[in-house]
Amino acid sequence: MSITVSALRETAAGERRVAITPEVAKKLRGKGLRVLLERGAGAAAGFPDASYPDAEFADAADVTNQADLLACVLPPDDGVLARLREGSVVVGQLRPHGATARIDMLANRKLTAFSLELLPRTTRAQAMDVLSSQAAVAGYRAMLMAAENSPKFFPMLTTAAGTIRPSRVLVIGAGVAGLQAIATARRLGAQIEGYDVRPETREQIESLGAKFLDLGVSAAGSGGYARELTAEERAAQQQALADHLKVFDAVVTTAAVPGRAAPKILGTSMVEGMKPGALIVDLAAESGGNCELTRPGERVEHGGVTILGPLNLAAGAPLHASEMYARNIYNFAELLIRDGALRPDFDDELVAKSCLVRDGEILFKP
Predict the structure, then answer these.
(1) Where does the record locate the signal sequence feature (predicted)?
(2) Which CATH number does 131-315 carry?
């Protein structure tokens, strides 16, 4: 019997993405696999059932009962996990940090689960790196949000009423989200600068046509992440950044490390030193925010400065976000399926390091 690869309609509030798109369903079917989806699974992302000629459809309970490999965007709820057959495989963003109860349930059900947030940041993993693909969507949308909520135009405009100067915009953090935010600000015509404590990002920032904001503090780390600053380095960074913030009309912050609270970069006094009408979009709101005044999911007004704490921005562009995410899932699934059978190669670093639970045994060490 062929393997059944399945996906359900995501049920988290505001979540519109889907883990399997028509394109990926066709690829899976071409490998001799059966694709079984919940009815309406892709509708919110712009993929009605009729757009899936290579998939079968059933209700959620039947899909779950028959799934050999369940692909998901966000962690399935307990009811779904309880219906999966022993030995089934779950692949997706399982948010493992602090999820002891979920991991225990996966183990008790004798499932095998892969959390793609844990993939090593290597060249070979890029094709299945969900953090990067979804961060690109979030960075793009964060800058659009900044432009929409700013009281000023982003580009320079020459009009009969005179010339309007371009907005000055700063992006803090030059990971995938930050670089996409910088590129988007450039497309919108803003005067853009980028800052990161990792000096190696200067070239990437400048390649996008932005100016690198050098605060004289370096925190080059390993694995693509910055190391933690010392107290002295942090104080120097904070003072230099506070001096520069006074000239910016909009700031987008993107600094985050998986499994940890977001670093606090913008203190209250720094916000109070910004010009009236300035705007902050805190992309790290889900993990506590880079700004002390950020409230996840809310809009805050403080001393004439607006702070936005958006959540799950990638879900707001569900069609393209789903297309990228589903390709990530497909590329990872190729490591799990060999000769038409589910046979993950645990000697493969990408498979081993992303595995939370294997046949009921907990492998994840926070």
Answers:
(1) none
(2) 3.40.50.720
d(CA 22, CA 234): 48
The encoded tokens of residue 3 equal: 């393997």
Tell me which of 39, 85, 121, 124 is the catalytic residue.
121
Residue 225 annotated among the catalytic residues of the structure: yes
Element (H, E) at 319: helix 318-336
Same CATH fold assignment for domains 4-118+318-358 and 131-315: yes
Under 8 Å between Cβ of 38 and 7:
yes
Helices 130-149 and 176-187 cross at an angle (nearest 10°) of 40
> For the chain, give me the number of helices (H) and strands (E)?
11, 19
210-260 pLDDT, tens digit each: 999 988 776 665 555 566 777 887 788 888 999 999 999 999 999 988 788
Q: 40-69 pLDDT, tens per residue?
A: 999 999 999 999 999 999 999 999 999 999
Q: Please identify which of the residues 2, 126, 207, 239 carries the catalytic annotation.
A: 126
Considering 68, 129, 249, 282, which one is annotated as catalytic? 129
pLDDT tens digits, one per residue of 16-47: 999 999 999 999 999 999 999 999 999 999 99
Q: Which of 54, 62, 83, 225 is catalytic?
A: 225
Smallest CA-to-CA distance from 113 within 356, 319, 346 is with 356
Q: Is 129 annotated in the active site?
A: yes
- Which CATH fold topology does 4-118+318-358 show? Rossmann fold (3.40.50)
For β-strands 299-302 and 305-308, DSSP reports them as antiparallel
121 is catalytic: yes
Is 126 an annotated catalytic residue? yes
The yes-or-no answer on residue 347 being catalytic is: no
Domain extents in the chain: 4-118+318-358, 131-315
